[in-house]
């Protein structure tokens, strides 16, 4: 990083996962599938979904409040809220970050959403880091989360089994202030030629929602799983290798990857010769929570004492767009 910029660290963290757990057998009432098929192909045993009376912003708010409490920072002192999501409360307007801003009482904060699907948290982290690094802001709240259960087609067996709801948040500060979670490096990328692989094909501003679209369900999430799988394996492997290039492997505390699919993570781990215990996996209980997956996994690693002070944490994510991102932190 440019030496005139300020080093940025993570002062605190928090996450929120819905209580409602949906197991694999739930799907057998909608299409032909089995617990065994889903477990074997994805590693997912259950996912958490919002209850009917809960909103995505409820999770984003709870994660933010826990994060601020852990950071010891008052909501009024937050300068900026960046929320990464593709499944906020509304269809893009207003930004759900503004709803969170009001809920937590961060009345002095600017707020906006960004979307880079499953890579969203890493994009948001990178944007938030710039505001702190330039000295523009001192407290930037970065949230990644999804209410994907609200945008899937329950009858589409290639997608509905995979996705879950959840959210995590971190507070960025000058490293000098918080003395932990130094963000050493971030890389981001995109390849729009793969845009059609994971998409809500119809019902956007290109083509208004019609009764036909509603009955087809093509305003909901669709994925070409096989194509995504191949790309995800190589990209996740490259991102983890990028983060550790020139680093002493002994310095690695843990890899916190996007919980894309257990098989994808295991293949990447084996290709890089990483000990399996160095790669955190929680997809079995939460499914793929897209932008929520990395921050939720980070929170769990920190709470479980899996991150050693002074050692490296690697984050890697890949998703719709196509987009990808990696980060190396020194805790
Ligand atoms: N239960 C039972 N059978 C299913 C099924 C389900 N839930 N979903 C698909 N199938 C069937 C298919 O219809 C197909 O049947 P056919 O051979 O009779 O046509 C067969 O299983 C194989 O389908 P395929 O899509 O090739 O399976 P797969 O091994 O690739 O597994 C995914 C499907 C979605 C689990 C897998 O492709 C995957 O995880 N991809 C990555 C997706 C991902 O992680 N996306 C998130 C990006 S952030």
Short account of what is shown:
This protein is an alpha/beta fold and 331 residues long.
SSE sequence, one letter per element: EEHEHEHEHEEHEEHEHEHHHEE
* Low confidence ranges: none
Please report the total strand number as a whole number: 13
Q: Report the span from N to C terminus.
A: 18 Å
Q: Any guess at the CATH architecture of the largest domain?
A: 3-Layer(aba) Sandwich
Small molecules in complex: coenzyme A
- Spatial arrangement of strands, main beta sheet: 1-7-6-4-5
Tally of structural domains: 2
**Spatial extent as radius of gyration:** 19 Å
> Total helix count?
10
Helical residue percent band: 25-40%
The CATH topology annotation of the largest domain reads as Peroxisomal Thiolase, Chain A, domain 1
What oligomerization state is this entry in?
single chain
Shape from CA axes?
globular
Mean of pLDDT: 96
Structural class: alpha/beta
- CATH homologous superfamily name of the largest domain? Thiolase/Chalcone synthase
What does the main sheet amount to? 5 strands, mixed
Percent strand: 15-25%
* Highest-level CATH class of the largest domain: Alpha Beta
Structure, described:
The chain is an alpha/beta fold. It has 2 domains: 8-179, Thiolase/Chalcone synthase (Peroxisomal Thiolase, Chain A, domain 1, 3-Layer(aba) Sandwich), CATH 3.40.47.10; 183-330, Thiolase/Chalcone synthase (Peroxisomal Thiolase, Chain A, domain 1), CATH 3.40.47.10. Helix content is 31%, strand content 24%. The chain is built from 10 helices and 13 strands. It has a 5-stranded mixed β-sheet, sandwiched between helices. A hairpin with a 3-residue loop joins strand 12 and strand 13 (323-330). Helix 7 (225-244) crosses helix 8 (262-271). The radius of gyration is 19 Å and the shape is globular. Coenzyme A is lined by residues 33, 37-38, 41-42, 118, 157-158, 161, 198, 223, 225-226, 228-229, 232, 260-261, 288, 318-319.
